[in-house]
Amino acid sequence: MTESVPQQSRQSAADEWLRTLPCRIGQIFVDRTAEGAFALRHRDDVNREDLAVYRDAEAAVAIAQYDDAGVYRPLKTAPNLRHGWSLMLADVTAVRVALDLFYPGRIPAYVAWRRGTLKTTPLRETLERQTGMYRVTAKITDEQANELVGSFCRSDGGCLRTIRWDRDIQGAPPSTLLPETKFDPAHDQMGKGEPVIPLLCQEPCNLLVAEARKVVKGSAE
Amino acid sequence: MASDFGSSGLLIVGHGSTVNPDSSAPSLSHAAEIRRRGIFGDVQCCFWKEEPSMRDALLMFQEGGIKEVYVVPNFISEGYFTQTVIPRELELSGRTTERIDGQVWNFCEPVGNHRSMTELLLERAREVAPGVPESEMSLLIVGHGTNLNDNSAIAAKREVEAIRQLGRYAAVLNTYMEEAPLISDWAKLTTTPHVVVVPFFIADGLHSYEDIPVLLGIEAAPSGSASERQRAGEVFRHNPHHLHGRSLYYASAIGTDARFADVIVEQVESFARDQHSISDNFARGLVA
After folding, report:
1. pLDDT at B208 over 90
2. Rounded to whole angstroms, how far apart are CA atoms B203 and B22?
3. Which residue range is the domain that position A15 belongs to?
4. B266 and B236: one domain?
């Protein structure tokens, strides 16, 4: 299904948010320096002076790879972005490359949502499409799915995305264990109550599918 | 280059991993290199096990007037991923798929099918064992082995046959991690004083950086991912390893070669050439 939200002009939807700075996306704070460059940093580090400075957009790959404890981050929208860095970039194109590396796929989802063309896919449809080792995930019960999504996708320790998909085609909520704000694009999932560009989730991710497999396999044993 | 790809997007599809950051590294690095060259209107990656997912990729290429998207699987062979998972997740109905908005998605061949694989494997062998006479050397190409509709073993056999026909090495052999001839039997399989092992894998992931060194006997147990070692300053292996009275040279996965960026671009060019020749033939009435 396609979400119905106010249409934006195709021309401006992509980077209009970079014209109003500072802005916040996920755990990242984007601002302009006095010299006109763009400066990205962790939202917790806004007032820090001791940041390691990087100037290449591709540096985002390494920054986003491990958390503060040096543990690999398979889910880039998990609320564990590393602290202590600043990324200074010359233009909007470089900012876009960096944000696509920090939060892969999230800007296209946001742009589509602003245009009113974001197609969402229910959890059941994603699971029923699977083949091979993940085919078994279609057997997850509604109760198991409710619990799994409520735990795996929660903003506090799970994932900072704003869920836009339903559990099934009838429109059942993804999980009754999550607060209403988890589905609200205007809500700051970091809990700071600041205006944010949401990390929209249009379809259950492959990490959730892999977790669903564990749940189904576990209950079968 | 004959074709202009300025209004085309490139989508590199990789496997990725939820446990090993090195799995997606080659795809990201080839994408960065191709982006730098400014050939395409947009260059993106997507993964099966990492973000962005293939489903996320359906939302890409909506800006900048992209008319065509070329999908290049960064996989060693045709198989389950190129034939089942990628078409399903990217909603591709064949080699060419037209979306509702008129954008055309072209499904190219995987990088491992490219004719330059043979030369890249030879180059890897030369780089890892410089100055060693080929007549005193056995070259072992190591692949994964049988898997769910996985043709990587067939692709590896094809490469070994091509290299063997050159008649330069004392021996050229296929080996696998999980089926005979096993890579762990390398000392029994060869008789030459020098043995070079090149992993026919896309990335220095779990297999080529952790499993195979243990199977070769150059390490006792898996000791961390490639990037973890790099951070510890241990990424460079100390070739040759002296084992069983031989000199053993171990290369990193073939897919980490920077020239794979050229291979990706050439898979797109090859697709575009085929398309043009088909349309030319239609225009000339040669195809019914």
Report:
1. no
2. 7
3. 10-104
4. no
Do B229 and B190 belong to one domain? yes
Mean pLDDT across A158-184: 98
- Mean predicted confidence (pLDDT) in B263-269: 97
pLDDT of B48 > 60? The answer is yes
Sign of CA dihedral B152, B157, B160, B162: negative
Report the number of distinct structural domains present in chain A.
Answer: 2
Q: Specify the pLDDT at position B225.
A: 63
Residues of A in contact with B88 (CB under 8 A): 129, 131
Q: Which of A102, A120, A159, A206 to mutate to test the interface with B (most CBs of B within 10 A)?
A: A206
Residue whose tokens read 């034939």: B83
Regarding whether A138 and A92 lie in a shared domain, the answer is no
Residues with Cβ within 8 Å of residue B161, at least 6 apart in sequence:
none
- Across the interface, whether the CB atoms of B59 and A111 are under 8 A apart is answered yes
What distance lies between CA B187 and its chain's CA centroid? 27
Q: How far apart are CA B278 and CA B288, in angstroms?
A: 11
**Cβ separation of B51 and A202 shorter than 8 Å?**
no
Question: What is the domain range of residue B265?
Answer: 8-112+259-283
DSSP H or E run through B164: helix B152-166
- The CATH number covering residue B94 comes to 3.40.50.1400
Which residues share a beta bridge with B13? B46, B73
Asked if residue A22 has a cis previous peptide bond (ω within 30° of 0), the answer is: yes
Torsion of CA A60, A64, A65, A66, to 10 degrees: 130
Residue A64's Cβ-side half-sphere holds a number of Cα atoms within 13 Å equal to 25
Q: A15 and A95: one domain?
A: yes
Buried b (16+ CB within 10 A) or exposed e, A6-25: eeeeeeebbeebbeeeebbb
User: Per-residue confidence at A10, pLDDT binned at 50, 70, 90?
Assistant: very low
Q: Are residues B82 and B190 in the same domain?
A: no
Pick the closest to residue A123 from A185, A175, A166, A70 (CA basis): A166
